[in-house]
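Batch manifest line 199
LIGAND: guanosine-5'-monophosphate
JOB: complex structure
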Amino acid sequence: MLSLHCILMKGKLFIIVGPSGSGKSSVLLELKKRHPEFTYPLSATTRPMREGEKDGDIYRFYAKERFEDGIKNNEFLEYAVVHHDHYYGLIKSHIMEGLEKGETIVREVDIQGFDSIRAKIPKKNLVTIFITVPNPSELIERIVSRAAISSDELGKRKESMKHEFARARDCDYLVENIQGELNKTVQKVEDIIKSETRK
Ligand code: 5GP
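JOB STATUS: finished
ARTIFACT:
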């Protein structure tokens, strides 16, 4: 049964999922430029910071011990070990406060995060968007061209990808991200957000 607290939540959480290389992060980056009025909550991760990243932009970079303390203290709405390597978790307070205030919240997570969130956030406050590409072989090319990646790492990504594709049908919307047409993809996501926030 939903608590009164959940019944009163007015905002909407838009969760973007999709296989590695589908362009989720690029879509989100562009959306952030076009819509600074939306809320983009932070996640914590134990993966190393990449070049060009800053703590507090998209992630809080935690040591493993700090993350595990966060798990014990119930700081995460969900958390998962992604690609068999590092912890990732959505900081609960950012999401719940935003939903209570009626904000439009947008965040990407992996498929494990998607499952946990669906079990925790009422349907009326949640919209899920699956970003995909016309041809799955494109994904491998994109991942390999993006950064130097070991064959072991590539194997892990391919494995996650199979599970992720199978879950597209569980999402509310499916958006194809065609190579070179990022603007159109972002437009489709914007249209979904607009129509869902009007409901
Ligand atoms: P990256 O390390 O490339 O930024 O992200 C790796 C994967 O972790 C992506 O599939 C991304 O969607 C996912 N991810 C990012 N933040 C979270 C989170 O808070 N929770 C979960 N479950 N996955 C996340």
